[in-house]
TrEMBL record, chain A:
Gene Ontology BP, a term: hydrogen peroxide catabolic process
Protein name in the entry: Hemoglobin subunit alpha-D-like protein
Transport recorded as keyword: yes
Cellular component, GO, one term: blood microparticle
TrEMBL record, chain B:
GO CC term, one of those recorded: hemoglobin complex
GO terms (BP aspect): hydrogen peroxide catabolic process
Domain Globin: 3-148
Pfam families: Globin (PF00042)
Function in brief: Involved in oxygen transport from gills to the various peripheral tissues.
Protein name: Hemoglobin subunit beta-A
CDD domains: Hb-beta-like
Length: 141, 148
């Protein structure tokens, strides 16, 4: 469960990262594709090489959605409703992959934030990304 | 047997050469106990773990973190036979310590986050991360091998 303080911290972090959404998102995706090659199977229709237009725009999309959810975490199910439908009926990404992406996002944040990615921020972020993934998969079955 | 490319071997040994076991080890163990508090179940004898500050300042946590991280040295030195290198440790974790082997995977993830925070994106690139995580995955698998 996320405390009030943690929700505030998460919202602050993602607000700061919104201007660099492209960089953060594409970095996390690139790391996921390198470490977990099976995840590439969902992107056979795109060019996902480093700094490609597709990778940058897709990374940006994902980060902006995560940042939007962070603005009011108690409303995640409402905020993510359209994305829930998209993932359940069209994309049908196996939800185990959300864990892999979340881990790579934590690594990206650690790289980007260094010492500012404190144990408290790490714990809060891990909880938030888990909650985000769980809500995203809610309509799957 | 695990196949390592030359690039992976180089990445792992280079990164290991930069890692200060006495620095990253304590950080990683403290983070494990903070981010996944249920892991504290294995450390009842460590004294005060009741707050993040207590965990971060706990000397037993620091010492043990250093020990655990230092244990990776054997894997780096024996990259082509990690499984056998960890047979005794695996037996110990299973039969004496009763640690759920999934915890090894979780600690490995936390170690990677600590390493990322320490070295940043120019050192801990996507390819270095891949090699490092593959290395840790082999260690994790070896530690879980003797569980029956």
């Amino acid at each position: 469960m996320l405390s009030k303080r943690e929700k505030k911290l998460i919202a602050e972090i993602w607000e700061k990262l919104t201007p660099v959404a492209e960089d953060i998102g594409s970095d996390a995706l690139l790391r996921m594709f390198a470490s977990f090659p099976g995840t590439k199977t969902y992107f056979s229709h795109l060019d996902i090489s480093a700094r490609s237009t597709h990778l940058l725009s897709h990374g940006k999309k994902i980060v902006l959605a995560i940042a939007e959810g962070a603005k009011d975490i108690s409303q995640l199910t409402v905020t993510l409703a359209p994305l829930q439908t998209l993932h359940a009926y069209q994309l049908r990404i196996d939800p185990s992959n959300f864990k892999l992406f979340s881990h790579c996002m934590l690594v990206t944040l650690a790289c980007h934030m260094g010492d500012d990615f404190t144990p408290v921020a790490h714990a809060a972020m891990d909880k938030y990304l888990s909650a985000f993934a769980a809500v995203l998969a809610e309509k799957y079955r | 047997m695990v196949k390592w490319t030359d690039a992976e071997r180089a990445a792992i040994t280079s990164l290991w050469g930069k890692i200060d076991v006495g620095e990253i080890g304590p950080q990683a163990l403290a983070r494990l106990l903070i981010v996944y508090p249920w892991t504290q179940r294995h450390f009842a004898s460590f004294g005060n773990l009741s707050t993040n500050a207590a965990i971060l300042g706990n000397p037993k946590v620091a010492q043990h973190g250093k020990t655990v991280m230092g244990g990776l040295e054997n894997a780096v030195k024996n990259m082509d036979d990690i499984k056998n290198t960890y047979t005794k440790l695996s037996v110990m974790h299973s039969e004496k310590l009763h640690v759920d082997p999934d915890n090894f995977r979780v600690l490995a993830e936390v170690i990677s986050v600590c390493v990322a925070a320490k070295f940043g994106p120019s050192v801990f690139t996507a390819d270095v991360q891949e090699a490092w995580q593959k290395f840790l995955a082999v260690v994790v698998s070896a530690l879980g091998k003797q569980y029956h």
